[in-house]
Amino acid sequence: MDIHFRDEPLEKNAPVLMALISIWNSTFLGYQSQAILPYNWPLARFSAYLQQAEMESNGKSVNHKGEVVPHTTGSIIWGQLGIDGQHAFYQYLHQSNTIVPADFIGSVESSTPVPGHHENLMANFFAQTEALMNGITAEEVKEDLRKQGLDADEIERLVPHKIHSGNRPTNTLLLQRLDPRTLGALIALYEHKIFVQGVIWNICSFDQWGVELGKTLAKKILPVLTGKIENAGHDSSTSNLIRHFQEQRIVLSQQQPDRIDKENRHD
């Protein structure tokens, strides 16, 4: 993948094409989140990895010169195993008013020896991308309901709820198999994509200044929580939250001996 990224022309360069698609979706069309949906159980935490990689790299609002970027950068990256997501948030992907571009990742070769499992898994994989792309029209819904024998009134009632608008963007990445080599290529694909996005947006994808402020403030708050210094120097909201935390710790510490005594008597 590194050689591919270095040598292939832009129009055939996978990381470049994925970066351009992502920028089109987020910066131009305003789709602010992207779902990562693997259909291969060893990739269960892959979306969490990409969430950190992309959001920490490109969640920036100033360019290399320190100037405010006049458009959105980065996306909210989220997701989980696709087969689990089908029972959690796919309803949102298919029919909500918010369009969420999604990357579907599958493999030709199964990662499990269970007979028939992979075929069933991949049938869902292809079905979901087809449904998101094509949707289903009111007339198609009506025809399907007529075949089921429903009467006209029931059909009219159900049609608005079963329409899928379609035209919901997805990328399909189909690996031959998931092994160390293809996993490395998959990670490199996304990391090069993140780099290209940063270049196009003219932002630095390699700093993390956004997390530094929280770390600095945490170092000031920790001595307050441990009782080494008084609660001072924070805004009223934070000070009141810290005070409430400390008060509740005192209450709980006073209840602890009584709870232990009751447990001992019960034993």
UniProtKB/TrEMBL annotation:
Residues making up the signal peptide according to the UniProt record: none
CDD domains, per the entry: SIS_PGI_2
Any Gene Ontology CC annotation: cytosol
Pfam families in the cross-refs: PGI
UniProt keyword rRNA processing, yes or no: no
Keyword Isomerase included in the entry's annotation: yes
Taxonomic superkingdom: Bacteria
A GO BP entry: glucose 6-phosphate metabolic process
Keywords: Gluconeogenesis, Glycolysis, Isomerase
Molecular function GO terms recorded: carbohydrate derivative binding; glucose-6-phosphate isomerase activity; monosaccharide binding
PROSITE patterns in UniProt: P_GLUCOSE_ISOMERASE_2 (PS00174), P_GLUCOSE_ISOMERASE_3 (PS51463)
Substrates-to-products reaction catalysed: alpha-D-glucose 6-phosphate = beta-D-fructose 6-phosphate
Family, as annotated: Belongs to the GPI family.
Record's protein name: Glucose-6-phosphate isomerase
Species: Nitrincola nitratireducens
Source species taxonomy: Bacteria, Pseudomonadati, Pseudomonadota, Gammaproteobacteria, Oceanospirillales
Gene that produces this protein: pgi_3
